[in-house]
Design brief:
The protein is 72% helix and 0% strand. It contains 3 helices and no strands.
Length: 108
């Protein structure tokens, strides 16, 4: 019984897929999707050719003349800001002490 179950499910799935594929609306959608994929592939291929041509031109140009060096900046990098956690601890301790003093009743 168990080996027949996957077979029956596969046959049912195939029947449903064929009915959907024969539908005119589905065919139009598939054709439109195929055209979009084809256009995307062609544009990607054209972009790859363009980049390849640019790279070839750069390589051909770099053999004739040496690359131009950019001037190096002599400035020191900005000092990193260090955050001290001490003020946060003080603020937290003040809040805790304020809460403690509010809860304590003062007798006179």
């Amino acid at each position: 019984m168990f080996p027949l179950f996957p077979f029956v499910v596969g046959v049912a799935t195939g029947v449903v897929a064929l009915r959907v594929a024969k539908n005119e609306r589905t065919r139009k959608a598939l054709v439109a999707a195929q055209e979009k994929l084809k256009e995307a592939g062609e544009s990607g291929l054209a972009a790859a050719y363009k980049l390849t041509d640019k790279a070839k031109a750069r390589l051909a140009g770099s053999q004739e003349e040496p690359p131009v060096k950019k001037p190096v900046s002599r400035r020191k990098p900005a000092a990193k800001k260090t955050s001290s956690k001490a003020p946060a601890k003080k603020a937290a301790s003040k809040r805790v002490s304020a809460i403690k003093t509010e809860n304590v009743e003062v007798e006179q």
